[in-house]
Amino acid sequence: MIDVSGYTKLYGDTVAVQSLSFHVAPGDVLGLVGPNGAGKTTTLRALAGILQPTSGSIAVAGIDLQSQPVAAKARLAFIPDEPQLFDYLTVTEHLQFVARLYGVTDAAPRIPELLEELELTAKKDALPPELSRGMKQKLAIACGLLHRPAALLLDEPLTGLDPVGIRRMKETIAARAREGTAVILSSHLLHLVEELCTRLLVIRRGQMVALGTIEEIVSARPDLAGRTLEEMFIALTGDGTSNGSPNGLISGAA
Ligand SMILES: Nc1ncnc2c1ncn2[C@@H]1O[C@H](COP(=O)(O)OP(=O)(O)OP(=O)(O)O)[C@@H](O)[C@H]1O
């Protein structure tokens, strides 16, 4: 569903991401984790078609993002960590606008369903400046889900949500995966990653250091057995990793 091959991104002389290759199948939730500056946002923005790769290729639902950008983008949704909304459109108008952009034919019943799922019904006529940070985040996610994307890209999706909102958001993400959406979730919240993700992609300084299920990663690094995800993260991304070569840590690469 999402295929990345040799993705590399340079900013001038800075190598932000180097030769990243991975696959996310329908129903998979891939946790993209790494320290600050590791290249997670750069990777998500490339997958969303916002950043052009320096080299490599990306396909969504079998459609090449560089040669057919509009068709590929029509199959995905990218929810950035900062919600991008229109100040003069109400909550409902946002969804109606997105429905027209993406040609969603059943928007009339879908919009109230999504507003209910994301607990926005009471705010359906509000403008973004009247919404809290968490409500803005929920609206951005509702807009992303309206066209039933085949690939869902989420950058820190829980920012600003209250405990009930967090639980509902986790259910929303898990429900989309059960329906066959390929999900990539980038977060520093390792408990979220552990709970929702079927596989992990750990990057450090733009390079992949581990890919696979936790079991696959542990089988490539037996010294990580019995460790918490936080301890694994520190061992995989710290400067003093015990086995030296980052490439030796990669497991289950697609
Ligand atoms: N527009 C840009 N111009 C130059 N360098 C950039 C630009 N955007 C990102 N970088 C650099 O690319 C590298 C990867 O940054 P990126 O934002 O992808 O990291 P990240 O993993 O998302 O970090 P964080 O967890 O802090 O959000 C960093 O070294 C960063 O300084």
Question: How would you characterize this protein structure?
Answer:
The structure is a single chain. This protein has helices at residues 40-47, 69-73, 91-102, 107-117, 133-145, 163-178, 190-196, 214-220, 229-237; strands spanning 2-11, 14-24, 29-33, 55-60, 63-64, 76-79, 151-155, 182-186, 199-204, 207-212. The strands form two sheets. The protein has a six-stranded mixed β-sheet with strand order 6-7-8-3-9-10, with helices on both faces. The chain has one domain: 3-Layer(aba) Sandwich (Rossmann fold), CATH 3.40.50. It is α/β, with parallel strands linked by helices. It is globular. A hairpin with a 2-residue loop joins strand 4 (55-60) and strand 5. Adenosine-5'-triphosphate is lined by residues 11, 14, 16, 34, 36-42.
Q: How are the SSEs placed, and which strands pair?
A:
Blueprint: E1 2-11, E2 14-24, E3 29-33, H1 40-47, E4 55-60, E5 63-64, H2 69-73, E6 76-79, H3 91-102, H4 107-117, H5 133-145, E7 151-155, H6 163-178, E8 182-186, H7 190-196, E9 199-204, E10 207-212, H8 214-220, H9 229-237
Parallel strand pairs: 3-8, 3-9, 6-7, 7-8
Antiparallel strand pairs: 1-2, 1-4, 4-5, 9-10
Helix pairs in contact: 3-5
The structure holds adenosine-5'-triphosphate (ATP).
Adenosine-5'-triphosphate binds at residues 11, 14, 16, 34, 36-42.
